[in-house]
C-alpha cells in the first residue's frame, strides 16, 4: 500500500525542512513547494493527498492558493498554517473548506492531530471515488 503523500507549502526553507523531517518520521511521503505557484502546479499534477499550506507567502498568499485549489478540487484536505493567527484569516480559510487552521508556533504538537483528521477525510474521499468507479 502506498504512503499518503503530503504537500507542504511554505516560503521559509528551514521550516519546510523541519516539517518534512517530522512528517517523514511519522511515515508520510512528503512533497515540498516553496511558493504558491509551485503548490498550484503540484496540485494540478495530483501529486498529493493532503496539503499543508502557509497563510502568508510573498508571491501568492495561502487564501489565493486555496481558492485556486478549490476551483479544481473541492475535496482535497488542506491544513492552513500561520505565524499570525487572526480571526478574519481563520474565517476566510474556513469558508474555503480548510480542514484545520494551526499556528506555526504550535504546529509540532497540533499538526499530528490535524493531519490524522485530514487523513481520515482524504481516505474517505479516496474510497468514495473508488466506489463510484
List the helices and strands and how they pair.
Elements (H helix, E strand, L loop, with lengths): L4 E5 L3 H13 L3 E5 L2 H9 L5 E5 L7 H11 L5 E5 L4 H9 L4 E4 L3 H26 L1
Parallel strand pairs: 1-2, 1-3, 3-4, 4-5
Helix pairs in contact: 2-3
Q: Please provide the ordered H/E string of secondary-structure elements.
A: EHEHEHEHEH
In angstroms, what is the radius of gyration? 14 Å
Number of domains: 1
> Taking all residues together, what is the mean pLDDT?
81
Say how many strands there are: 5
Keywords:
133 residues; Rossmann fold; alpha/beta; 5 strands
Characterization of this structure:
Helices cover 51% and strands 18% of the residues. By secondary structure, the protein is α/β, with parallel strands linked by helices. It has a single domain (5-132), classed as Rossmann fold. The protein has a five-stranded parallel beta sheet, sandwiched between helices. Strand 4, helix 4 (87-95) and strand 5 (100-103) form a beta-alpha-beta unit. Helix 2 (36-44) runs parallel beside helix 3 (62-72). The model has no long low-confidence stretch (mean pLDDT 81).
